[in-house]
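Please, structure for the following, as tokens.
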Amino acid sequence: MDKEFDNILPEETKQVLRDTFKDLKDKVSIEVFIKDNDQFSAFTSEFIKGISELTDKIDAKFYKAGSDAAKKKGITRFPTILISPDKYRISLIGAPIGEEARTLIMSIMLASNDGTILSGLAIKRLSELKEPRRIQVFVSPTCPYCPQQALNAVSAAIALPDLITAEVIEMYENKDYMDKYHIVTVPFTVVDNVPIGTGLKPAEIFVEELFAVSSVEKMFAPKEGEKIEVDVAIIGGGPSGLTAGIYAGRSGLKSVILEKATVGGQVLVTPVVENYPGFTRIAGKTLVDIMYQQALQYSHIFEGEDVIDIKKTGEIFEIKTNRRTYHVKGIIIATGAEHKKLDAPGEKHLSGRGVSYCATCDGYFYKDGKRVIVVGGGNTAVTDALYLHSIGADVSLVHRKDKLRAEQFLQKSLTDNKIPIHWNYVVKEIIGKNEVHGVRLQNVKDNSIKVLEVDAVFVAIGYVPNNGTAKMLNLAIEAEGYIKADNKQRTSMEMVYAAGDVTGGVKQIATAVGQGAIAAITAFEDLSNPYWKKEGQI
């Protein structure tokens, strides 16, 4: 291998991949198109060579720009990776760095096994498609939501190889697309040259968008679907929900974890976690992966599964999602909280066009010295500012007070890195037509106005609870919307528990994990000995 990439695959990574590749069924041919004097092509070449040496089920061939093979297949972007081009129309355009490497490995696994991550209902609906579709999913190395949206497209291409073309495109190496579609957030999906929206979509909605060639905002549960009976349904796949799944399983309860998006919650997009016991410093994504793998040993985890309705009949809850129906004896709500909005003019219109609530997802767009601001004064805001500074953005912080709420350690890092702070200012307006060009700030003390020219606004001003499930059950909630729960995580309804950020209080990973454990243990105790059925009680 090129000496520059000697450690491209550390030995521990090689061993993980060897174990993973044991599940390969059919041989996968990979065609790699590269050009000379290009660092991304050089990295891609060495990466593919490295993984192909780990199994005899991967056959890699390499072609240079201008070759007959490149001309024949119309390859004009480099690097480009074709996966099983004799069977499918699947291409990864850009170097497999960061999250794209995960997408590549999973695509190889799916192609080898004629597999899919789409649900049975989504596959059934997809089989009704009669017209060809070209799907382009734009991704970045740091976006944890991108692989699943990319694999939705890959799965569709495998399911309908004669009709669907799937292209996974690294946006930073292909900046012309950024200008063409005004892409400033990922994942970003285009079908037949028509943008159909940003973000990760549940499989059923993704498939419907292939039919409509437009965004499908909402989809209700099917009238008929798979019915599953378990003891406990855990709604939410963040640290609290994953921990609840572990403890429920260890208690002997059959459980499912239902996550409407991607497992991990806010931790998934936290660049670095430095206050979780056992890890001095760990990437949020890595911590989530560890929790996820452990939870899988004890509970079934379903991603892209949104709860549509809940009804209680006797002692059984019927939960309807966009995929299935569940009959359960108990529910643990661990739905967390979502980012609070500024409610400033321009915010809604420019969301996804320079207004972002996820620095890890979208910061990569601004790494070449572009001017950005982070709005907020807590741990998340300061962590986001430090992350953006570390990747090369020209970042400053805007805070409505004259003191930060963040931990002292983070504040010191902010000072050490000389990141400027606009004290006592709020965002009065976000300026821009198709993308952010600036912000109008107002001083809270003297009402003076100043305008900053910036390319992006990252909002980190706190959270609002995801209490939709609680409202379906008419649970008691606090004025701020958080679910009321006692010290055993019991809510106002028997056999319904709440844990993590959705209950308010201290929003820390350690707190969420503790509450998830308590909720599962309490559910087990209540199933064994219902406290509300004691003598003298109804």
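The chain has a mean pLDDT of 92. Residues 340 and 462 are 5 Å apart (CA to CA).
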